[in-house]
C-alpha cells in the first residue's frame, strides 16, 4: 500500500492542477473579454447561425495581442484583439474571420475544447504527475520518459483535433454559403505575416499543423463532397 501512495498522490495532484487550470483559464478569459459586436462581421455570424440552426453565434473579444482564436472548455469562442485589429485594418476579410470562428466552433462542437485543456494549461500538471510516478519507478530516466510521453500525447491529440476542426469549418462555411476560399487564403496570409516579421509566427498558426497540409486536407474533403 505504502508503495502506491506516491502514485496516488501524483494522480490527485494532477487532477487538482487540471481543475485549477480550467478554472484559472476561464476566469482569465472572462476578466479580459467582451462580446464582439461588429456590424461588418454580423452578417457572417448570422449566416453561420442559420446554417447551424442556432438563434445566434456569439463571439468574444479577448484583449491580448497575439493573433489567435480560442475555444474555451465551457464552449465560448474567443478572437484576440490582435486578430480583430487585422480585420479592422482590412488585412483580413470578414469571410476569413468567419473561417477562424468556424474552426473554433468545430473545436467546441467536436468536444475538443475541454480535452485541449490538457494540451495547454493542464499539460504541466500531467507532466509533473507523470514525472513523480516515473521517477519512482525508473530513477534517472523517469522524468525524461514523462516529458516525452506528455509531449507526444499533446501533439497527437492536438494535430488530429486541428484537421477535424478544419473539416467541420469547411462543411459549415459551405453550408452557410461563405465557401472555403477564405479558409485557405487566411492560412496563406498568416504564413506570409510570419515571413514578413521575421520569427513572429501568429500563435494560431504555431499551434496548428503546417499550412500546406491543412489546405491539401480541405481540398481532399471538398473533392470528396463534390464541392469544388
Ligand atoms: Zn484549432
Automatic annotation (TrEMBL):
<dbReference type="InterPro" id="IPR001915">
    <property type="entry name" value="Peptidase_M48"/>
</dbReference>
<dbReference type="InterPro" id="IPR051156">
    <property type="entry name" value="Mito/Outer_Membr_Metalloprot"/>
</dbReference>
<dbReference type="GO" id="GO:0051603">
    <property type="term" value="P:proteolysis involved in protein catabolic process"/>
</dbReference>
<keyword id="KW-0862">Zinc</keyword>
<dbReference type="GO" id="GO:0046872">
    <property type="term" value="F:metal ion binding"/>
</dbReference>
<comment type="similarity">
    <text>Belongs to the peptidase M48 family.</text>
</comment>
<dbReference type="GO" id="GO:0004222">
    <property type="term" value="F:metalloendopeptidase activity"/>
</dbReference>
<feature type="domain" description="Peptidase M48">
    <location>
        <begin position="36"/>
        <end position="220"/>
    </location>
</feature>
<keyword id="KW-0482">Metalloprotease</keyword>
<protein>
    <submittedName>
        <fullName>Putative metalloprotease</fullName>
    </submittedName>
</protein>
<dbReference type="Pfam" id="PF01435">
    <property type="entry name" value="Peptidase_M48"/>
</dbReference>
<keyword id="KW-0378">Hydrolase</keyword>
<dbReference type="GO" id="GO:0016020">
    <property type="term" value="C:membrane"/>
</dbReference>
<keyword id="KW-0645">Protease</keyword>
<keyword id="KW-0479">Metal-binding</keyword>
Amino acid at each position: 500500500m505504502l508503495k502506491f501512495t506516491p502514485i496516488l498522490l501524483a494522480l490527485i495532484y494532477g487532477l487538482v492542477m487540471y481543475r485549477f487550470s480550467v478554472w484559472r483559464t476561464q476566469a482569465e478569459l472572462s476578466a479580459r473579454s467582451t462580446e464582439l459586436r461588429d456590424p461588418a462581421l454580423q452578417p457572417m455570424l448570422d449566416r453561420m447561425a442559420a446554417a447551424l440552426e442556432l438563434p445566434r453565434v456569439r463571439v468574444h473579444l479577448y484583449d491580448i495581442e497575439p493573433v489567435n482564436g480560442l475555444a474555451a472548455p465551457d464552449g465560448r469562442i474567443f478572437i484576440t484583439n490582435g486578430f480583430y485589429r487585422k480585420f479592422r485594418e482590412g488585412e483580413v476579410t470578414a469571410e476569413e474571420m468567419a473561417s477562424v470562428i468556424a474552426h473554433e466552433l468545430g473545436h467546441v462542437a467536436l468536444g475538443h475544447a475541454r480535452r485541449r485543456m490538457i494540451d495547454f494549461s493542464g499539460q504541466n500538471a500531467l507532466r509533473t504527475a507523470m514525472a513523480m510516478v516515473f521517477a519512482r519507478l525508473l530513477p534517472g530516466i523517469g522524468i525524461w520518459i514523462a516529458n516525452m510521453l506528455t509531449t507526444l500525447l499533446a501533439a497527437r491529440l492536438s494535430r488530429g483535433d486541428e484537421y477535424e476542426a478544419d473539416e467541420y469549418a469547411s462543411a459549415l462555411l459551405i453550408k452557410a454559403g461563405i465557401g472555403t476560399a477564405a479558409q485557405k487564403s487566411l492560412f496563406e496570409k498568416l504564413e506570409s505575416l510570419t515571413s514578413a516579421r521575421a520569427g513572429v509566427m501568429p500563435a494560431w498558426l504555431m499551434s496548428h499543423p503546417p499550412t500546406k497540409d491543412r489546405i491539401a486536407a480541405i481540398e481532399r474533403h471538398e473533392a470528396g463532397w463534390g464541392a469544388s
